[in-house]
Design brief:
Shape: globular
Helix content: 25-40%
Strand content: 15-25%
Largest sheet: 6 strands, parallel
Bound molecules: 2-acetamido-2-deoxy-beta-D-glucopyranose
Radius of gyration: 22 Å
CATH class: Alpha Beta
Number of domains: 1
Number of helices: 14
CATH superfamily: Alpha/Beta hydrolase fold, catalytic domain
CATH topology: Rossmann fold
């Protein structure tokens, strides 16, 4: 007899879960985490091999055919932004139009290359795992890409569109509150979005935020990219070539270390003439001959000044135990145009540990509640989960599928 009772209970639970429905998921990518398309109608190019015109939009981001020697120079020339220090905004170069394809569709954030080449695998493993437990792409898995070259000040329309996407997704999923599943800078975008919304709206529409590798307090890596560039972990790309595009991105200035998490006594860039701390960024960018980097920092600083909680349930997942740049050290006798040694500390290989763990601050008590208004803040530190590889880490996939069934 007891066994019959148990199975009745079991059936009841399954029915209850089905009628409540799985929380639909909106995927928000990080820096570089979505497809980009460009259309050209240029009057001049940097090499004779560069195309001046294109009949239509074509995939430009992580298109392996474009990331080869010489052609990469055309790529840089098309994707770099021009900063206007009067309007304090950026624009595409003359004759180039860049757009982000597939709003709402998860495909452009699952695969960075529309041909689904493995090198551009992004949210695909997580989406596949969600499908296995009953999710349906385009219905209960949606994608929210944005122009990751830009910071929130130039992505105002993203926050408006995201609110509509959340509401539509809630409605088409039988009024089920939505989970925001975010990676890296997508976490900072989601945090800004949630701060813009009123608490009753969040209580109704947002089930939870699951963040992977979010740089809540910035990363010294951004300084490193301004100084010497980044090869995106690829053996075929040269840092110095990529840098020409990277240093034009306001999002990189937004990701610089936050004064809330770095003390003025800590040296970020060391030379024998001057040691630069978080308070010396203006001097640093002047000395590096990157005046626009300082202007873009000023434009984006407003988003790093307060660290108020999102006001929704948080699952903060991050890696540690991987050497992560903490300081740039220029040899005595060399200057900022030399090549520094990268001194490492703990983190996920891209983001410093103090920034990844900053979410834990929201769990702190304030009077009878917590800084997060009593909403749970769980963190899941994972040894050796690298910043990008975390997207395909079995521990993360198991955690997400478990949480999503609750
Ligand atoms: C929608 O949810 C309600 C209760 O929350 C439930 O009664 C109904 O069966 C659900 N409908 C569908 C199509 O899942
Ligand atoms: C391309 O730009 C030229 C001006 O440089 C303009 O006259 C022409 O209409 C443009 N073509 C298209 C297809 O936009
Ligand atoms: C804007 O940039 C120009 C050209 O680089 C420079 O001469 C000027 O001083 C800058 N103005 C401001 C307000 O930063
Ligand atoms: C999702 O929707 C887009 C746009 O309507 C469509 O191109 C794509 O094939 C759909 N994906 C799936 C898996 O149905
Ligand atoms: C910068 O810091 C290093 C290490 O602490 C020290 O050896 C060096 O003298 C400092 N340089 C200056 C200019 O203060
Ligand atoms: C940290 O990484 C080292 C290799 O870099 C490894 O030997 C060690 O086991 C790791 N620690 C943990 C807690 O996984």
């Amino acid at each position: 007899m007891p066994s019959i009772k148990i199975s009745f209970l079991f059936i009841y639970c399954i029915l209850a879960q089905n009628s409540l429905g799985l929380s639909p998921v909106i995927l928000i990518p990080g820096d570089g985490g979505s497809q980009l398309e460009a259309k050209l109608n240029k009057t001049s190019v940097v090499h004779y091999i560069c195309a001046k015109t294109s009949t239509d939009y074509f995939n430009i981001w992580l298109n392996l055919e474009l990331l080869v020697p010489f052609v990469i120079d055309c790529w840089v020339d098309n994707l770099k932004l021009e900063y206007d220090n009067v309007t304090r905004t950026t624009r595409d170069p003359e004759g180039v139009s860049v757009r982000i394809p597939g709003w709402g569709n998860p495909e452009p954030v699952e695969w960075l290359d529309p041909s689904h080449d493995k090198t551009g695998a992004y949210f695909n493993s997580i989406a596949d795992a969600l499908v296995k437990i009953g999710y349906v792409r385009n219905v209960s898995i949606k994608g929210a890409p944005y122009d990751f070259r830009k910071a929130p000040n130039e992505n105002a329309d993203f926050f408006v569109k995201l609110k509509t996407l959340v509401e539509e997704t809630y409605t088409t999923n039988n009024k089920t509150a939505v989970t925001l599943l975010v990676h890296s800078m997508g976490g900072s975008m989601a945090l800004h979005f949630l701060r813009l919304q009123k608490q009753p709206w969040k209580d109704q529409y947002i089930r939870r935020l699951i963040s992977l590798s979010a740089p809540w307090g910035g990363a010294v890596k951004a300084l490193k990219v301004f100084a010497i560039g980044d090869d995106l972990g690829s053996l075929i790309l040269r840092e110095s070539v990529m840098r020409a595009e990277q240093i034009t991105c306001p999002s990189l200035a937004w990701l610089l270390p936050s004064p809330l998490f770095w003390k003025p006594a800590e040296v970020l860039v060391q030379t024998d003439k001057f040691n630069y701390t978080i308070n010396d960024l203006q001097k640093l960018f002047t000395d590096m001959d990157l005046p626009n980097a300082w202007e873009m920092r000023k434009d984006t600083e407003q988003y790093t000044r307060d660290f108020s909680a999102p006001g929704v349930e948080v699952h903060c997942v991050y890696g540690y135990n991987i050497s992560t740049v903490e300081r740039l050290v220029y040899k005595p006798g060399t200057w900022l145009d030399g090549y520094p040694t990268l001194s490492g500390g703990d983190g996920d290989g891209t983001v410093n540990l103090r920034s990844l763990t900053a979410c834990e601050h929201w769990a702190k008590r304030r009077g009878r509640s917590t800084l997060n208004g009593g909403k749970p803040v769980k963190s899941l530190p994972l040894a050796n989960a690298e910043h990008l590889k975390i997207l395909h880490d079995q521990r993360v996939i198991d955690y997400i599928t478990t949480v999503m069934k609750i």
